[in-house]
């Protein structure tokens, strides 16, 4: 079992001041793979003080120096990317191919996007009328809190943007996915990140996360996780009037019009929803289908869902792995149970584990049909391989159902009519709209409306989240 109790503070790996042991469990085997420490307020305070001491130096560093650090980090990360992929498979159960082909490549892609944003940002410029100089400066010491579902993606989008802006930081990754974050710390150390600029403290949300969110020397907080936890972060930050950036949950509509190629659209819809075992905040979990093709679509989607394989994360191939832990497994089972109780039709899947998986937190890929948008399974983020199908009649009803949610992170449209796609995209209240399977690059802003969060991440928009603007006149 790996010993990962140390924290990275002020340029060195140090022993916890008041840590508590926590076992990291492989969700495919339910066996421990590492021991970390859950830090306490003393550990957070030590890390924040290191970041504060380093802030003046790093915030005044040149663009060239920051680009050089990010470039070295990208090159080292690329060399160690397979290690990062293996860590994510071990800690959160992402299948090997998904870790190598989708999860791990996010790290170098986001570093590259941050470099590009930094090189193209104009830090000083005249005001529109020319009477003042507008200057963008690092916002301060940043507290970064990241989740377990896309560990490196969420760590790197925050860390790379904060470094580019000239901020110093304290990162608290999820205690369920700490190993990949530790490798990121090693990459930055090897790249020559100055002491105190990047600090890593492991811990849970109730103690470590709360201590970081309420620390008086933190200037801004960037949090990714559930809407419930994001609300607590905002409350903790409010006492110090600290800036908060939040990337939270979603219940994204996927609007399938009758004029689309049903085979292609439905296969994409099922696979995208179930990818990463459904543990993606922007997953297209509400499949809205035009009534004229609804019955046919249910039959086809059921066939595609039944073909989705569940497998050992260590094995190659296209299959989904387990959920991250026992807590998440039980939550998803409860959501499925409520869907059945409400009268939704189980087309495939349902309660319990797939056949042949007595150990591990594996869930049957589950498809519900005949769902109405007021049902529990249509309103709540399930965060598992569960897809619900809802019929609609016409463009206006599709938009109305799509927008009838507390969330607004993403939306999806499937149609062969380009004008309709653009028209509907502009009416949907979501931060990202994907048409016919197309996705934005890492320079495109990612974030949501309503209870899906505040602010935007990635590229120039992520950089701006870590900047303050000063007007100098005279």
UniProtKB/TrEMBL annotation:
InterPro entries: Ald_DH/histidinol_DH, Ald_DH_C, Ald_DH_CS_GLU, Ald_DH_N, Aldehyde_DH_dom
Annotated Aldehyde dehydrogenase domain residues: 13-472
Keyword Manganese belongs to the record: no
Keyword tags: Oxidoreductase
Enzyme active site: 247
Keyword field contains Endoplasmic reticulum: no
Organism domain of life: Bacteria
GO MF, one example: oxidoreductase activity, acting on the aldehyde or oxo group of donors, NAD or NADP as acceptor
Protein family according to the UniProt entry: Belongs to the aldehyde dehydrogenase family.
PANTHER family for this protein: ALDEHYDE DEHYDROGENASE, ALDEHYDE DEHYDROGENASE-RELATED
Protein name as it appears in the record: Aldehyde dehydrogenase family protein
């Amino acid at each position: 079992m790996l010993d990962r109790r140390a924290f990275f503070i002020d340029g060195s790996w140090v022993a916890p001041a008041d840590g508590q042991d926590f076992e990291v469990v492989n969700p495919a085997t339910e066996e421990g793979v590492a021991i970390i420490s859950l830090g306490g307020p003393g550990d957070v305070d030590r890390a924040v003080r290191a970041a504060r001491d380093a802030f003046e130096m790093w915030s005044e560093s040149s663009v060239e120096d920051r680009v050089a650090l990010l470039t070295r980090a990208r090159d080292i990360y690329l060399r160690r990317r397979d290690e990062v992929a293996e860590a994510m498979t071990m800690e959160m159960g992402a299948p090997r191919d998904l870790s190598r082909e989708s999860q791990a490549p996010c790290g170098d892609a986001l570093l590259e996007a941050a470099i590009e944003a930094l090189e193209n940002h104009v830090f000083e410029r005249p005001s529109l009328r020319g009477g003042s100089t507008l200057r963008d400066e690092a916002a301060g010491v940043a507290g970064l809190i990241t989740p377990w579902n896309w560990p490196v993606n969420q760590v790197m989008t925050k860390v790379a943007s904060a470094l580019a802006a000239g901020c110093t930081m304290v990162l608290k990754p999820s205690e369920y996915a700490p190993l990949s974050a530790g490798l990121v710390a090693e990459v930055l150390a090897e790249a020559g990140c100055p002491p105190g600029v990047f600090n890593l403290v492991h811990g849970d949300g109730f103690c470590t996360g709360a201590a970081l969110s309420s620390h008086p020397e933190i200037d801004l907080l960037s949090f990714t996780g559930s809407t419930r936890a994001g609300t607590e972060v905002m409350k903790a930050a409010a006492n110090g009037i600290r800036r908060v950036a939040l990337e939270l949950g979603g219940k994204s509509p996927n609007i399938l019009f009758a004029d689309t190629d049903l085979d292609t659209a439905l296969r994409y819809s099922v696979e995208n929803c179930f990818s990463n075992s459904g543990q993606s905040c922007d997953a297209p979990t509400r499949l809205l289908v035009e009534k004229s093709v609804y019955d046919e679509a249910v039959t086809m989607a059921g066939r595609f869902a039944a073909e989705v394989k569940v497998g050992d994360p260590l094995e190659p191939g296209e299959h989904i792995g387990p959920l991250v832990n026992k807590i998440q497994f039980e939550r998803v089972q409860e959501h499925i149970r409520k869907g059945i109780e409400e009268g939704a039709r189980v087309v495939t899947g349902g309660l319990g584990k797939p056949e042949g998986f007595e150990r591990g937190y594996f869930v049957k890929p589950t498809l519900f049909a005949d769902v109405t948008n007021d049902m529990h399974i249509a309103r709540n983020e399930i965060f598992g391989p569960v897809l619900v199908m809802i019929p609609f009649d016409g463009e206006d009803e599709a938009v109305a159902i799509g927008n009838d949610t507390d969330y607004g992170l993403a939306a999806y449209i499937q149609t062969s009519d380009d004008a309709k796609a653009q028209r509907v995209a502009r009416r949907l209240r979501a931060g990202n709209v994907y048409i016919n399977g197309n996705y934005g690059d890492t320079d495109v802003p990612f974030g949501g409306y309503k209870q899906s969060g505040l602010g935007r991440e990635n590229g120039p928009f992520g950089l701006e989240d870590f900047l303050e603007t000063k007007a100098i006149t005279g």
